[in-house]
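Running this now, will post back.
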Amino acid sequence: MKDASRRVRAEGLTGAAVAAVMQSTGLTHGGFYKHFESKDELLLESLHEAFREIGDTLVGAAEQSRPEAAWKAIVKTYLSAEYCDHVERGCPLPTLAPELARADKEMRGRIFIELVNYKDRMIPFMPGRRIADRERAFFVIFSTMIGAIEIARMLPESAMQEKVLANAREFLLHSF
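Update: finished.
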């Protein structure tokens, strides 16, 4: 599933055709449908894996820092050139959000569950005393980071990308 998830993040929803994912995972057409009811099921499993993978990375960074600096470790990890350069290993939101927003209502409901689980993993590390404060911080921090990564990835030169990432990093680290 990790290979399929990375392929979806790297190529997008339309780029990760069922046939290509089947080929990379060694499944036949019949084998695919024994594992998944549809391409939507593959997408949901890929999103689940993507959120698990980036969540593990961010939680690991947070847990290796002092508790009061855990959220800062998340920001530094997320807004790094390394992360920006590797679409296939990162958070699916900077890459897939526009496509996910166009999914049908039922699919968006299922995507929402994955988003809530991701948020819930990050909330313990966010700044703030109350849960409501931490949740607000999560949305501000992650919205800023997602946008910064999207913009940086569009830029043609690494120096320009790093400038966007550094500005977003500095802004966030000094805002809470």
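DSSP finds ten helices and no strands in the chain. More later if anyone needs it.
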